[in-house]
Amino acid sequence: MKTNIEIALAVALIALSLIMTIVVLMQEGKSAGLGTIAGAADTFWQKNKARSAEGRLVLFTKIGVALMLIISVVLDLGIW
């Protein structure tokens, strides 16, 4: 029989999966910056990308993936 904690973790994992799907789809593709190969200099936008909305999305993706991994391992091992 499932405990309340296992049910809560499963619901959190499903919700986090849906949120992560949306966050990944919102991110800009890596091929968007290929115009700089021709020798164009770095722009102010590119230098400060980590502080932009795109940078926050990348950070949120990394944190979300780590949380998903931890929750999945906890549910699989049945620690509760």
UniProtKB/TrEMBL annotation:
<keyword id="KW-0813">Transport</keyword>
<feature type="transmembrane region" description="Helical">
    <location>
        <begin position="57"/>
        <end position="79"/>
    </location>
</feature>
<keyword id="KW-0472">Membrane</keyword>
<protein>
    <recommendedName>
        <fullName>Protein-export membrane protein SecG</fullName>
    </recommendedName>
</protein>
<feature type="transmembrane region" description="Helical">
    <location>
        <begin position="7"/>
        <end position="26"/>
    </location>
</feature>
<dbReference type="GO" id="GO:0005886">
    <property type="term" value="C:plasma membrane"/>
</dbReference>
<keyword id="KW-1003">Cell membrane</keyword>
<keyword id="KW-0812">Transmembrane</keyword>
<keyword id="KW-1133">Transmembrane helix</keyword>
<dbReference type="Pfam" id="PF03840">
    <property type="entry name" value="SecG"/>
</dbReference>
<dbReference type="GO" id="GO:0015450">
    <property type="term" value="F:protein-transporting ATPase activity"/>
</dbReference>
<comment type="function">
    <text>Involved in protein export. Participates in an early event of protein translocation.</text>
</comment>
<keyword id="KW-0653">Protein transport</keyword>
<dbReference type="InterPro" id="IPR004692">
    <property type="entry name" value="SecG"/>
</dbReference>
<dbReference type="GO" id="GO:0009306">
    <property type="term" value="P:protein secretion"/>
</dbReference>
<comment type="similarity">
    <text>Belongs to the SecG family.</text>
</comment>
<keyword id="KW-0811">Translocation</keyword>
